[in-house]
Amino acid sequence: MINTIAFIGLSDVINGLSLGSRLFLIAVGLSLIFGVLGVLNFAHGAFYMIGAYVALAVTNNLVDNFWLAVLLGATAVGIIGVLIEVGTIRPLYGRLDGDLDQLIVTFGFVLITHEAIRLIWGSKSYSLDPPAVLDFPVSIGGSSFTAYRLFVIGAAFVVMVGLWVFITKTYFGSLVRGTSSDREMASILGVDVPRLYTGVFFLGSFLAGLGGALAAPLQSISPGLGEQVIIDAFIIVVIGGLGSLSGAFVGAMFVGTLQAIGPKFMAAGHVAIPFLAMVLVLLFRPEGLFGGFGE
Amino acid sequence: MGNGHKNNDSRAAANSVGVDRRTFLKTTAAGAGLATVAGCLGGGSDEGVTLGALYITSGFASLYGEEAERGYELAADEINDDGGIDGEEVTIISRDTEADATTAGRQLRSLIEEENVDGLFGLDSSGVAQALAPQVAQFQMPFMATHAATPFLTSPEGEHEDSVGNDYVFRNANNLAQDIYGAARTAEELDATEWATIGPDYAFGYQTWDYFQAFCEGLDVDAEFTAEQFPGLETGDYSPYISSIMDADPDGVITPLWGADLTTFLGQAENAGWFDQIDYTLFSVGMGTDLPADGSPLVEGEHASTRYDPFVPDSDENNSFRERYTDEYDTLPTYNAEGAYRAVYMYKEAIESAGSTGSDDLVDAFTGMEHSGPVGDYQFNEETNQATVPSIWGTVSYDDEWESNVLDPVEVYEATPDVINDALGDSDLPSGV
Fold first, then answer.
1. Which one, of B158, B121, B147, B148, lies nearest residue B136 by Cα?
2. B418 pLDDT higher than 50
3. A:226-285 residues touching chain B, CB 8 A cutoff
4. Fold identical between B49-174+314-388 and B177-308+391-424?
């Protein structure tokens, strides 16, 4: 169904960046964990969802402070990620069929998380108010946005720059890059690879939780949340290149923009556009638009 | 009536222990006799009447299942306290359709084959209802739809390529055609000519828009149709869709968004300044769940419809139901609660008038049935099995006494099947009425 109104305005760009920003926060963690550990973490969408629910619980039941809720949400997910990595994924690293085992284990956590969320919060949908300081409308290009939506876009840029500095300019970052290139050599040179892996898994999980918590005021919070975003995240990392930091960023903004302008051109069926983009990338550039971690 | 499974089980058991022919025949005959008696009143269970309820009780639309449960439990309690159905206790077994046709089909089969229910009612989703109707006919089991609104459910098979209506499927709530007829009549009264829609990306979303346009044209409403948006179910962030509609700047928008999707949309639309820019928003499922209750994001002054209004008609039956319901649940009854409540009473009336729980007897009793309930007096059209209940549209207002959103003022559009069909004009859309 073709929409009669089909033009792209500033509001669409902002909507696209807003959608892309929260997708970036989940996709970059997924890409980071794959790039360094080689683990395709199916539970990453569930981590994002846990971040949103923890932020909701903290705000509603513990302390009415949104920023603390975001911090606790992200940290809680980071800790959960560490427990899962140490407890269930680490023993699988040396296995011949480790990849398949990792997929099955992480998918198991998707199901467990889904049911646990339903057990604790039920199947209802919840919403979370943005922090009062950012809960006011801003008019841009004739459209109205909450200041919080603009803040999330800024937060994604800050995270992107911070991660880039961290990976390329710090000692820990050089260890990460070195280990992702040659795990055995890094180990021979004295790098504590298991501990590094756990640290990276914490960071990736933390970012997913941060994404979920920051996105909570922009969307409904329901047990289906993790499944929605993990599909987008996989599309992004395939388009951007598995394991690529810049690829995750560009891919997320690209998919976010497609999702924002898609409805302008196709009232129905536009959800297929990102999938088509992914297919085209796979056909003509199977390694993604950007290759190699840290690029 | 029972479906004969018990007889088969008895025979298998008798053969397995090696009894002689005479004992086998006597046992089988006695078993068949008992099964027949039990089947006449009580279906598969040894005694009592068992009904199967199929609603969405999890996920984005679980509110609908919860509301329906309140309604049918209240009815079952009232009936059982009052001596049951022909002296037999009524039991309701609930199953979750998860808004998924495959799941709903599996649950339907299970209710019939494993629970041996005497009758079925429920369904919240048009898509699921369209998928299930042929199965209902295959099982030859009466089904009273209380919510799913697609006209194709009661449009007799063959009338349209999507029609799935058959002898076994009935609907006691008004359907989408009846509801949208009221929407077009409402639009006629508003100072709006350019209309848009935002609805869920499946049959119900598209049909609402198609019927709205057809009724506007059939009723000569001065209307142009501009933008349309169909976000998927459980969309978390509606901002692109809201932006797209607002860019088209229509005077009015009709939206059949429902369940948690409606709640999500409302908050985000309000933040985007939707209700400042767009003059009229018509919520065709707005009064569907506990959205009307305190804290509802439904915006006062906008228009919404309902299949049942707790204050309309102002009859003893409706007032009494409203009081009993609010005493029990401390909130006003929604249409899904009333539809489910009424379905149980309709089975009671049908079983008692037929003196049987046999499927064909119940179907005969329901066909053309005249019934009275909180929603008022109505009759089933023998051609479609659709109840001729009115369309109710009104303005969303907050009522301090009830601490709830209500429709005030409210307009009741009573229309016969002929009127509805005429109003569809040159369209090839079936009314299902």
1. B121
2. yes
3. 228, 259-264, 267-268, 271
4. yes
Structure confidence by residue, pLDDT tens digits, B173-187: 999 999 999 999 999
- A233 to chain B, minimum CA–CA distance in Å? 15
pLDDT per residue as tens digits for the range B145-182:
999 999 999 999 999 999 999 999 999 999 999 999 99
For residue A138, what is the DSSP state?
A: E
Q: Please report the pLDDT score of residue A4 as a whole number.
A: 42
B226 touches chain A (CB under 8 A): yes
Query: Which pTM was predicted?
Result: 0.83
Q: Which residue of B has its CA nearest to A10?
A: B243
What pLDDT, in 10s, does the model give residues A28-60? 999 999 888 888 899 999 999 999 999 999 999
Q: Is B260 on the interface with A (CB under 8 A)?
A: yes
What's the whole-number average pLDDT of chain A? 89
Are A227 and A100 spatial neighbours (Cβ–Cβ below 8 Å)?
no
Pick the residue from chain A with its C-alpha nearest to B198: A267
Does the residue A36 lie in any domain?
yes
Nearest to A268 among B201, B237, B243 (CB): B201
Q: Please name the residue of chain A whose CA is at the shortest distance from the CA of residue B225.
A: A4
Q: Which of A91, A216, A79 is nearest to B236 (CA)?
A: A216
The answer to whether B224 contacts chain A (CB < 8 Å) is no
- The DSSP annotation for B338-393 comes to HHHHHHHHHHHHHHHHHTS--HHHHHHHHTT-EEEETTEEEEB-TTT-BB-PPEEE
> DSSP character for B26?
H
Q: Does B255 touch chain A (CB under 8 A)?
A: no
The class of domain B177-308+391-424 in CATH terms is alpha beta
Residue numbers in B near A218 (CB within 8 A): 236-237, 239
Percent of chain B with pLDDT over 90: 75
Average pLDDT, integer, range B373-384:
96
Classify burial at B20, counting beta carbons within 10 Å of its beta carbon; exposed 0-12, middle 13-18, buried 19 or more: exposed
* Whole-number percent of chain B with pLDDT over 70: 88
In a domain, A235, yes or no: no
Q: Stretch B26-30: mean pLDDT, rounded?
A: 41
Range of the domain at A35: 18-223
ipTM of this complex: 0.82
Domain ranges of chain B: 49-174+314-388, 177-308+391-424
- A195 in a structural domain: yes
Distance from CA of A12 to the nearest CA of B (A): 7
Asked if A19 reaches chain B (Cβ–Cβ under 8 Å), the answer is: yes
What is the architecture of the domain spanning B49-174+314-388?
Answer: 3-Layer(aba) Sandwich (3.40)
pLDDT of residue B10: 35
Of B228, B237, B263, Cβ closest to residue A125? B263
Contact A123 B58 (CB under 8 A): yes
Buried-state track B272-293, b at ≥16 Cβ within 10 A, e below 16: bbbbeebebbbbbbbbbbbbbb
